[in-house]
Amino acid sequence: LDRLRPVLDGLGKAFEDAGHELALVGGPVRDAMLGRAHTDLDLTTSALPDETERILERWGDVTWDVGRAFGTIGCRKGPWQVEVTTYRTDAYDADSRKPDVAYGDTLAGDLGRRDFTVNAMAVRWPGRAFEDPYGGIVDLADRVLRTPVTPEQSFSDDPLRMMRAARFASQLGFDVAPEVVAAMTAMADRIEIVSAERVRDELVKTICGRWPRRGLSLLVETGLADRVLPELPALARERDEHQRHKDVYEHTLTVLEQSIELEERLPGGGPDLVSRLAALMHDVGKPRTRKFLDDGTVTFHHHDVVGAKLTRKRMKALRFSNDDTDAVTQLVELHLRFHGYGSGEWTDSAVRRYVRDAGDQLERLHVLTRADCTTRNQRKAARLRRTYDDLEERIARLSEEEELASLRPDLDGNQIMEVLGI
Ligand code: ATP
Ligand code: MG
C-alpha cells in the first residue's frame, strides 16, 4: 500500500476538497495484502459520476466514461490507471440478465454487495483507514472464499458470483468455504439466466489461472460445469465396459497442467488461452465415439473429428471469437495425428503435411501433443517424448532444406540453356 500512497494521497485530496469520500476497494486491496502490486486501481466514492468526471479531468491525463451506465469513470495519470465507481447498493431484478444500477451513499453498503469477503476490504483516502466489515483479512489469511451475506442471498442477487468463486479459486489457489460450495451446488441452474459473455469471461479467467484444476473441479463438483461446459463432466462419467472409471477426466486435467509447464516455449509465453482450451477439450469426443471390441478393449473411433465439432459448438455457444474458436478446434482435430508417427512410416511429405495443416498453430500443437504424451507408464511416456523430439528435428531439417530450396532459382541449368537457346 505504501507504493500507492503518493498517487492516492493526491487523488484522495481532490475528492475531499470536493466534499466526497474516496476508497480503494476490491482487487487492489486484496492483492496489496498478498504482496502483489497493481497499477490498475479500483476506487469507490460518494460522488456521482458527473462530479467524479469533473474531479478526474482536473487530476489526470486522460479520462473516459465507457462505464458511465454502471457509475464508473476511468482515468489515466502516468503509469496509473484508475476506475472510480459511485457507491452501489443492492438492487437486482430477479429476471434480468444484468444487475441494475442503484447508487448508495455509504462505503459499508457498497462493500456488503460485493462477491467475497476478501474482495470487500477497502482503504479510505486520505488518511488510509482500513475498512473490513466482513472479516476479509481473516479469510485472506486462511486463504478461503466466503460471501459477505449468506451465499444463497448473494447468488440469487447475481448468479455469476458462482462462476467467480471458481475463478478466484483458480487465480488465488484459495479454498471455497463449505457453505459456499453447498449453495453453488443447490443453485447451479440459476447460472442459466446469466449472459454467455459474462459466463465466458469468468471461465476464461478460471482456465488461465495459476491453479486451474481447483477452479475447474469446483465447477464439475457443484454441477455448474453441466450448465456451462458439459463436455468436461461428461469425461468424468466415462467408464469402460466393466464400469471401471476410465479417468479421461483426470487425464484431461493432467494434460492441462503439463501443457501449462510447456507454455514458455510459445511466442507469447503464458498463460495461453488457446493452448489451455485445446488441452481441456482435446478428448471431449471420446464419450461419443467409444466402441467395445470383441477382445474386451475399447477404441475411440475418430474422436478427434467429433471432438473438434463439439469444441466448435461449445465455443460458439460461449461467444468466443472466431479466431480462438478456429485455433482451438484445429488443435483438437490434429492432436492424434502424431500417434501414427512412431511406426516409422511417415514420409517427408507426411511431415510437411503435418506442418502445413498445423499452420500458425504448430507451436501449440507441439505443446498439446507433448503434454498428451504423459501416461501413467513412465517408460512409455519417455519413449513418446523421444519420438516427438525426432519429429521436431525432422520438421526443423525439412524447413531448413525448404529455405535453401527457395534461395535456388526455379529453373535448373538445362532449362536455362533451353530457354536461351544455347
Ligand atoms: P482482477 O484482478 O482479476 O481484476 P478483481 O477482484 O479486481 O480481480 P473484478 O472482476 O475486476 O475483479 O471486480 C472488481 C471488484 O468488484 C471485485 O473485487 C468485487 O469486489 C467487485 N465485483 C465484481 N463483480 C462482482 C459481482 N458480480 N458481484 C459482486 N461484486 C463484484
Ligand atoms: Mg479488477
UniProtKB/TrEMBL annotation:
<feature type="coiled-coil region">
    <location>
        <begin position="374"/>
        <end position="408"/>
    </location>
</feature>
<dbReference type="Pfam" id="PF01966">
    <property type="entry name" value="HD"/>
</dbReference>
<dbReference type="InterPro" id="IPR014065">
    <property type="entry name" value="tRNA_adenylyltransferase"/>
</dbReference>
<dbReference type="GO" id="GO:0004810">
    <property type="term" value="F:CCA tRNA nucleotidyltransferase activity"/>
</dbReference>
<keyword id="KW-0808">Transferase</keyword>
<dbReference type="Pfam" id="PF01743">
    <property type="entry name" value="PolyA_pol"/>
</dbReference>
<dbReference type="Pfam" id="PF12627">
    <property type="entry name" value="PolyA_pol_RNAbd"/>
</dbReference>
<dbReference type="InterPro" id="IPR050124">
    <property type="entry name" value="tRNA_CCA-adding_enzyme"/>
</dbReference>
<dbReference type="InterPro" id="IPR002646">
    <property type="entry name" value="PolA_pol_head_dom"/>
</dbReference>
<dbReference type="InterPro" id="IPR006674">
    <property type="entry name" value="HD_domain"/>
</dbReference>
<keyword id="KW-0692">RNA repair</keyword>
<protein>
    <submittedName>
        <fullName>CCA-adding enzyme</fullName>
        <ecNumber>2.7.7.72</ecNumber>
    </submittedName>
</protein>
<dbReference type="InterPro" id="IPR032828">
    <property type="entry name" value="PolyA_RNA-bd"/>
</dbReference>
<keyword id="KW-0175">Coiled coil</keyword>
<keyword id="KW-0547">Nucleotide-binding</keyword>
<keyword id="KW-0548">Nucleotidyltransferase</keyword>
<feature type="domain" description="HD">
    <location>
        <begin position="248"/>
        <end position="368"/>
    </location>
</feature>
<keyword id="KW-0460">Magnesium</keyword>
<dbReference type="InterPro" id="IPR006675">
    <property type="entry name" value="HDIG_dom"/>
</dbReference>
<dbReference type="InterPro" id="IPR003607">
    <property type="entry name" value="HD/PDEase_dom"/>
</dbReference>
